Amino acid sequence: MELELRHLRVLCAIADAGSLGRAASDLGYSQSAMSTQLQRIERHFGESLFERHTSGIELTHYGAEVLAQARDVLAHAASIGRRSAAGGARVRQPLRLAATNSPVLAGMLVRLRSRLPDLALTVSSVYPSSEIVELLEHGEVDAAIAADYPGRVLRHSAAIALRGIVTEPSFVALPAGHRLRHCREVALADLADDAWFLTPDDGAGWPGVFYVACELAGFSPAAVHEFLGDREQLQKMIAEGIGVSVVQATLRPIPDVLVKPLVGTPLWCRYVLAWRREGPADEVADTLFASAAGTYRALIAQSTHFRAWASCT
């Protein structure tokens, strides 16, 4: 089989839908035709790209690598020769982007501007993911980076499309002099007596998932400081021993702060790309996703504590 762009679109649809049935419905195929198509694609690559489960399918490690490259190819293919009909001048396409507290935002914007230099981009910082969905639903933004949690998929109408960028473990940040500083992993229960810095309700499941994890570990947090602000300021307070905090796995710690995985990985967060189906063109959505995914891969490459955790799982 000669690989074509339509095959790459099939892979993306399956990965986005999480099941052959939903992907087939999205593309207008029968489920048997979609299954046959996937088998041919996997034969081309000589390796399985998805693992089948009763609840659906998920990417293999190799499949994730292929998918990231497929999205890059589709984004580049879509941008070839994009010009307006009048005078051959390039079109300035507006895009209003909202983003929650995500590690991928800065790098994603750099990649996006290099790939779509004629995009007229405006960015708004919006913390609650539930509010981001409302802005999308009301047409006040075109696309967004939002967050949700396993078992708590972000609620949205059929007018909004979601594509998972990454589901990452949540780590914990400790002061360098913490009593658990020598532990490779930290048990959540061992932090029962510590004060915590927690970001506010995001309308998508946080901090509820944190309190559930604490309850399962057999404790309630001794003290909680609600904090939403500068990450560097948060780390400075942690360094001073004022408290500990759940943090993004790729966070780059400042001096006197340690970032460690939690035993059993009780907390996970998923970052998603969301956009209005009647808003950005498919190629723009593909480029947004490829830019976000590429940025996350770069963050992992720079994160020694994340790579150490991944090598042991």
CATH class (first level) name of the largest domain: Alpha Beta
CATH superfamily of the largest domain: Periplasmic binding protein-like II
Q: Number of DSSP strands?
A: 11
**CATH topology descriptor of the largest domain:** D-Maltodextrin-Binding Protein, domain 2
Q: Overall pLDDT, averaged?
A: 88
In terms of structural class, how would the helical and strand content be classed? alpha/beta
Describe this structure in words.
This protein has 313 residues and is of the alpha/beta class. It has 3 domains: 5-68, Winged helix-like DNA-binding domain superfamily/Winged helix DNA-binding domain (Arc Repressor Mutant, subunit A, Orthogonal Bundle), CATH 1.10.10; 87-164 and 269-311, D-Maltodextrin-Binding Protein, domain 2 (3-Layer(aba) Sandwich); 168-267, D-Maltodextrin-Binding Protein, domain 2. It is 39% helix and 22% strand. The longest helix has 21 residues, at 282-302. It is globular and about 60 Å long. The two termini are 35 Å apart. The model has no long low-confidence stretch (mean pLDDT 88).
Q: Topology, please?
A:
Layout: H1 5-17, H2 20-27, H3 31-45, E1 50-53, E2 56-59, H4 61-79, E3 93-99, H5 105-115, E4 119-125, H6 129-137, E5 143-148, E6 160-175, E7 195-198, H7 208-216, E8 223-226, H8 231-239, E9 244-248, E10 257-260, E11 268-276, H9 282-302, H10 304-311
Parallel strand pairs: 3-4, 3-5, 7-8, 7-9
Antiparallel strand pairs: 1-2, 5-11, 6-9, 6-10, 6-11
Helix pairs in contact: 1-2, 1-4, 2-3, 4-9, 5-9
